[in-house]
Amino acid sequence: MAKSRSSSGSRRARPAAVITLDGPSGAGKGSVGQRLAIQLGWHFLDSGALYRVTALAARQAGCDFGDITGLVGLASGLNVRFEPQVGSDACVLLDDRDIGDVIRTEEIGRLASEVAVLPPVRQALLKKQQTLRQPPGLVADGRDMGTVVFPDAELKVFLSASPAARAERRYNQLKDKGLDVNLARLAEEIRVRDARDEEREVSPLKPADDAYIIDSSHLSIAQVVERVLSLLRKRQGR
Ligand code: DC
Fold first, then answer.
1. Span from the CA of 48 to the centroid of ligand 1 (angstroms)
2. Ligand 1 center from residue 156 Cα (angstroms)
3. Residues facing 214 on adjacent strands
4. From 204's CA, which of 25, 98, 126, 141 has a CA 20 to 30 Å away?
5. Mutate to test the pocket of ligand 1, among 106, 143, 198 (most ligand atoms within 8 A of CB)
């Protein structure tokens, strides 16, 4: 575990503590983040789901991705909350209806990555994400949580894992769901998605200067959770 650069140590009064968990897809952020939220009794934010819900809402409303005003209106009006689970993806409640399964398709993932490159949409979702920062605390999972959305977070973690480890995890997840998958194709999809997330002009995927970097390639979810909790205790002086 390495710290990419020391933080300034300055602390401002803030409404609630936040742990940010950023990293590429398949690094285990979702599983780790949900367990952390449950153990701490904190709120949970799956920011990727917000981009997915925006894409879904746009498709349902027949809103073209060139219609920035329409997209921003949809993103700003979303009434979404998350319920963390152990052992599965978080429940994503849109107007109190669980739409987790509907947004976690390959098609909505692709559309989400298209809306995620639009700065006005990111700006609208930025405000939405910040309103989810409520006592007693928030665990926020995404790509730019520590760099853009919660730059003053209590603890920032960048969770990485080798592309091979991430492809294998994804392969096992999909196999468990009874789907017919190809490991080499998954590895290629992960490579393409990493490149798109890292090379994007707005809010690219990268560790915050003061993030702790944890490589989860050879760690279980429980081990990563324990490391994050131990870092949190250190940060809180316990
Ligand atoms: O983590 P995910 O697969 O659900 O994310 C869906 C898309 O949203 C993905 O293309 C990256 C983008 N995203 C983003 O740009 N910023 C975030 N904080 C989270 C996700």
1. 4
2. 18
3. 159
4. 98
5. 143
Q: Tell me which of 3.30.1240.10, 3.40.50.620, 3.40.50.300, 3.40.50.2300 is the CATH number of domain 24-228.
A: 3.40.50.300
- Write the DSSP symbol of residue 40: H
Whole-prediction pTM: 0.89
Contact between 195 and 226 under an 8 Å Cβ cutoff? The reply is no
Among candidate residues 96, 2, 114, 3, the one with its CA nearest the CA of residue 52: 114
- Written as one string, the DSSP assignment of 152-200 is T-SEEEEEE--HHHHHHHHHHHHHHTT----HHHHHHHHHHHHHHHHH-
